[in-house]
Amino acid sequence: MDQAMANTELMFKAMADSTRQRLLRVLSVRELSVNEIVEVLDQPQSTISRHLKVLKDAGLLVDRRSGTTVMYAAHVSRQVPAIDLSEGRTRAGKGKNGMAGGTVIRDWLLGWIGSERLEDSTRDRLGRILGRRPAADTGFFDAVGDRWDQLRIDAFGRAFHFEAFTVLLPGDWVVADVGCGTGYLLGWLSERFSKVIAVDPAASMLEVARNRPELKQAQNVDFREGSLADLPIDDSEVDLVIASLVLHHMADPTLAMPELRRCLKAAGTLMIIEQEVHDNELFRDRMGDERWGLDPQMLGQWASRTGFSEIHIIPLSTAEPTKRDIGRTPGLFVLTATSGKPKVVKTARVRKVRVKPGTRKAKPHRPAKPEPDVITGVETQMDVHLL
To answer: Each residue of 81-116: b (16+ CB within 10 Å) or e?
Structure first.
């Protein structure tokens, strides 16, 4: 008898007892401790413990420790597969161990047992037990305290939020990553959008990007060699253009602004991620930067003069270095803008005054000068100064 058949036999034997069926039905609804199960099923603890062992050995239960208490729950069923009794197998086909596959049989049994209604008396007792529980069991979180962030980073890394946020954008967009370098963003972009255009002036960088493991199967990434001052992108070809940490590598970043707007569709979106102005020479030399960062508000002015509207500038407070051997690294910020028509900004006009002959001219009323760090039509959340 092979392992798959033996596992299947264990599951059916476990399900042959009516008490174990009731127990599994309850644990399909809610995770419970042994004492709670005893009260819900109105059975002796020794009986419950024996049935729990049989169900766990059959792979129908999972358990976990919460402090000094062991909690039990039905194994999570992925789906209820259709079973073709005429051929004696599931429509899902054979499992890796032969026959119908133990996991498929288990999922079918759990799906069936979970769909059965609890008896009224059992449901009432379960409701009373759950009602006695605290509103929220915070014991685990009280114990881990300030280690929680690191636990989550260790499990999922720091970048999963970025991937989640991209779901908010339309999947049928055409996106350009200009100055893509070695293609750090391309894997996420290719999974979320219908087409990605990757542009970089360095052929060696593009070659590295093409060979990234996550892009081996990607069919929607178009690699193009070219500079930001003369993008190899047609007029109005893309919905979103991203320039991430690239403009400070240009001697004159203003040359890129008209190109960024030209390649965007009407009401397309521009996103620029950049370094703030800094004085760390060691960092600048190591990164091969042309400029000492960019002033956020000056970049906003360039975007506004190019015809972008709805300009927003926000600091990226989560950026932090993983190495400290190059001193203090510059802060980062993001600028977003729309390629549509710029908003009409109303300004005060000079008030004309009629002067009678022979009288001294009255000084015209002039509007107050704007503060030097305010950009008309640009929303900013940064405390910065113009260069």
So the answer is: bebeeeeebbebeebebebbbbbbbbbbbbeebeee
